[in-house]
């Protein structure tokens, strides 16, 4: 059997997050010698889907509020845009292990005192996603999964209604209202007054070709202004409709610009119907992004790459004859001509988000209605609580929105009869409390008599948004940016995958061959057996 | 005549077990009637193989998945096990060590696969008995399988002895479990990517 240190690897990939795993997929037909490692004993790194047991120990490892475990002080180091000048050493050797990451903090778990009696099942019955992003059907991620044939191993579910919490009219009080996103929706929405309907129709029509020469003059000068002002000033949308439109952007600070906001809404609206009626986005069954990461790694393995989990690695030496020497946790030394990892240190300019994952012993059925004839039953619903909409008595007015992704048991993330709610907001001093209020408000609004059985709270930051490339002679160290904090998958991260792919492929990188593969499947027979 | 290919129920069968047990050899012998005594790298590039099989007068399409080497450091992903109807656990009858690891493999299969999935134990390299290479007796294998609630047989990919049997018997067990076979047609809730979205995608007809 070949051994790990027998010859030089073409590349060593550290971490099995989505970027690294898509890279593994991209390289899976390349004949390169690839070693793919993860310090954790599960796949997915910061985008993993965890059983309750894994979630408990993950939370335990990320309880710290003090985020750095390094000798150096936090300041200055995190911008990390250093370029190595020393011939033999990287100035800041990358932190290669997701376990030592400073991206997460203040994690804690709460369990209902009678959780089991209330229906909490065994730990493996759950699969809690650390980064539950929805994927718009227009996303290049899906087209790459199709062209690489990896999509066959993933089951995609529909993301259904987007709801906004608030007061639509005095008669109904505060409720969840479906966000109208098509002509039919607008016409059938009873809560919208006729005048507002016209304004909304005008806006929806505008967004569809907002980037055309005809429409551009309307917004270009205001491109960097807040979208919320633009909606009111130019389109005369009332407060409720403004909130609805803003919710569609999934903006975490509520301050999305006209330029970015219009692009996001455009993506949302033009994604509807692409793969079938009634939905604009999909979600991979069994834990979202993590499932795609695992399928990418499997493709890498099928292509001959070697996989090791539970194996932290550190840099021993760089530059020796153009090779990078690495030391594995089991003291084996290996050498490679390129090293791919992801940045594990938060950037001081990064926003921080707070997440609350909650298991509810109710299916919250009413949120998963079928949206159009022939549409699949949605497995994910999105609920937005606009800035200032949540009841909070004592604190200063909360000026950021809260979003809830509600996942039915169809996602495979919980047993049937239950659901998982993923709440996200920009971190404030009270966010742990605010997310609890949002969760309670949500359960009340859907009139569910469900109890919260289990909660996982944590805060997440991100690294610099650029990939870091350090070269010495023929050896290259490449670091992906950490996962984005956005609630919808952002195609930009695919560009960095291609960047890394080019580094490993060197002269063999043919642009139009990236992620373009034939099916591996072979019909193995002419002589079928019947007995 | 048998029903057309596309309408056949699809069953997902996994092969698991320690490195060197003979999983890939079994897959290649069963699906392609090939055996290569030299090569372990021959399995690179094999995701799964498809084979048609009829039991009790009804035809099925088997998608048989190989571990792709991810068993070597025990890094099979949970996604490998998704939707599997049957899991064939393979050990090498000439290796005590490989037999001793089967308990862990059964645990892993139970932990990750559908609780209804059919587990089946295979002792491989039966031809080695002739050269005095047996290290695990038939009775040991049989008793262990029974303790795990699994069926059992011994096979040789080299001589073809019994290679069809594990597949026939696994499918026979699967089709007796209606709740398991119900999943053999894709769920109505998942989205069919072949239906739309990417006109460039060649149709699979
Ligand atoms: N004599 C004999 N050798 C076998 C048999 N099946 C597999 N082998 C050999 O055992 C080694 C490992 O087999 P392989 O199928 O690659 O094992 P895997 O790691 O479980 O996929 C190879 O050298 C095979 O040629 C068999 O039935 N008889
Ligand atoms: Mg093999």
From TrEMBL, chain A:
GO terms for biological process: small GTPase-mediated signal transduction; vesicle-mediated transport. SUPFAM superfamilies: FAD-linked reductases, C-terminal domain, FAD/NAD(P)-binding domain. It comes from the Eukaryota. GO terms for cellular component: cytosol; nucleus; Rab-protein geranylgeranyltransferase complex. InterPro entries: FAD/NAD-bd_sf, GDP_dissociation_inhibitor, Mrs6. Belongs to the Rab GDI family. This is Rab proteins geranylgeranyltransferase. One of its GO terms (molecular function) is GDP-dissociation inhibitor activity. Residues 63-91 are annotated as: Disordered.
Automatic annotation (TrEMBL), chain B:
GO terms for biological process: protein transport. The keyword Metal-binding does not apply. InterPro entries: P-loop_NTPase, Rab, Small_GTP-bd, Small_GTPase. The keyword Protein transport applies. GO terms for molecular function: GTP binding; GTPase activity. PROSITE patterns: RAB, RAS. Keywords: GTP-binding, Lipoprotein, Methylation, Nucleotide-binding, Prenylation, Protein transport, Transport. Gene3D superfamilies: P-loop containing nucleotide triphosphate hydrolases. Pfam families: Ras. CDD domains: Rab. Belongs to the small GTPase superfamily. Rab family. PANTHER family: RAS-RELATED PROTEIN RAB. This is Uncharacterized protein. It comes from Xylaria multiplex.
């Amino acid at each position: 059997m070949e051994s790990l240190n027998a010859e030089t690897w073409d590349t060593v990939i550290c971490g099995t997050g989505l970027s690294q795993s898509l890279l593994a997929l991209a390289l899976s037909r390349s004949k390169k010698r690839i070693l793919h490692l993860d310090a954790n004993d599960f796949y997915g790194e910061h985008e993993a889907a965890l059983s309750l047991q894994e979630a408990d120990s993950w939370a335990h490892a990320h309880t710290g509020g003090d985020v750095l475990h390094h000798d150096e002080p936090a300041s200055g180091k995190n911008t990390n845009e250093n370029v190595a000048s020393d011939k033999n050493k990287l100035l800041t050797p990358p932190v290669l292990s997701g376990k030592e990451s400073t991206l997460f903090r203040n994690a804690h778990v709460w369990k209902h005192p009678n959780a089991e009696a209330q229906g909490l099942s065994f730990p493996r019955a759950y699969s809690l996603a650390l980064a539950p992003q929805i994927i718009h059907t227009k996303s290049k991620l899906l087209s790459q999964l199709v062209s690489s044939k990896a999509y066959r191993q993933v089951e995609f579910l529909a993301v259904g209604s987007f709801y906004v919490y608030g007061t639509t009219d005095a008669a109904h009080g505060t409720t969840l209202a479906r966000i109208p996103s098509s002509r039919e929706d607008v016409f059938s929405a009873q809560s919208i007054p006729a005048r507002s309907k016209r304004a909304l129709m005008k806006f929806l029509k505008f967004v569809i070709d907002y980037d055309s020469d005809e429409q551009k003059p309307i917004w270009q000068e205001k491109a960097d202004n807040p979208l919320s002002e633009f909606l009111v000033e130019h389109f005369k949308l009332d407060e409720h409709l403004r909130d609805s439109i803003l919710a569609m952007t999934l903006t975490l600070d509520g301050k999305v610009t006209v330029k970015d906001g219009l692009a996001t809404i455009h993506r949302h609206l033009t994604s509807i119907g692409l793969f079938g009626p009634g939905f604009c986005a999909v979600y991979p069954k069994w834990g979202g992004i993590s499932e795609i990461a695992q399928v990418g790694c499997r493709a890498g393995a099928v292509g001959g790459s070697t996989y090791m989990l539970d194996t932290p690695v550190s840099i021993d030496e760089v530059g020796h004859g153009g090779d990078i020497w690495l030391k594995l946790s089991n003291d084996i030394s290996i050498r490679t001509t390129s090293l791919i990892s992801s940045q594990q240190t938060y950037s001081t300019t990064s926003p921080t988000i707070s997440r609350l994952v909650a298991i509810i012993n109710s299916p919250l059925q009413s949120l998963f209605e079928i949206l159009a004839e022939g549409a699949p039953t949605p497995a994910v619903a999105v609920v937005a609580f606009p800035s200032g909409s949540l009841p909070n008595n004592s604190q200063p007015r909360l000026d950021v929105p809260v979003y809830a992704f509600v996942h039915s048991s169809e996602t495979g993330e919980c047993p049937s009869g239950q659901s998982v709610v993923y709440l996200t907001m920009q971190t404030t001093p009270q966010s742990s409390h605010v997310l609890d209020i949002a969760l309670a408000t949500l359960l009340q609004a859907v009139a569910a008599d469900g109890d919260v059985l289990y909660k996982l709270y944590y805060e997440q930051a991100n690294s610099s948004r650029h990939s870091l490339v350090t070269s010495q002679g023929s050896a290259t160290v490449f670091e992906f940016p950490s996962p984005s904090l956005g609630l919808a998958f952002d195609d930009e991260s695919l560009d960095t995958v291609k960047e890394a792919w080019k580094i490993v492929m060197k002269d063999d990188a043919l642009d139009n061959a990236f992620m373009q593969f034939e099916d591996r499947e072979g019909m193995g027979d002419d002589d079928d057996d019947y007995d | 005549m048998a029903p057309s290919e596309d309408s056949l129920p699809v069953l997902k069968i996994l092969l698991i077990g320690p490195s060197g047990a003979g999983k890939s050899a079994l897959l290649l012998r069963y699906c392609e009637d090939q055996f290569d005594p030299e090569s372990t790298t021959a399995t690179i590039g094999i995701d799964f193989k498809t084979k048609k099989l009829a039991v009790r007068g009804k035809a099925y399409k088997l998608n048989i998945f190989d571990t792709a080497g991810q068993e070597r450091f025990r890094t099979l992903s949970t996604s490998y096990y998704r939707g599997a109807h049957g899991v064939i656990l393979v050990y090498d009858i000439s290796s005590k060590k490989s037999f001793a690891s089967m308990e862990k493999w059964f645990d892993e299969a139970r932990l990750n696969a559908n609780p209804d999935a059919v587990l089946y134990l295979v002792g491989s390299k039966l031809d080695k008995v002739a050269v005095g290479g047996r290290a695990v007796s038939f009775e040991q294998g049989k008793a262990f399988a029974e303790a795990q609630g699994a069926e059992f047989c011994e096979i040789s990919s080299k001589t073809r002895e019994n290679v069809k049997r594990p597949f026939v018997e696994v499918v026979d067990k699967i089709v007796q479990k209606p709740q398991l076979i119900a999943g053999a047609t894709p769920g109505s809730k998942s989205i069919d990517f072949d239906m739309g979205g990417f006109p460039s995608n060649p149709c699979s007809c």
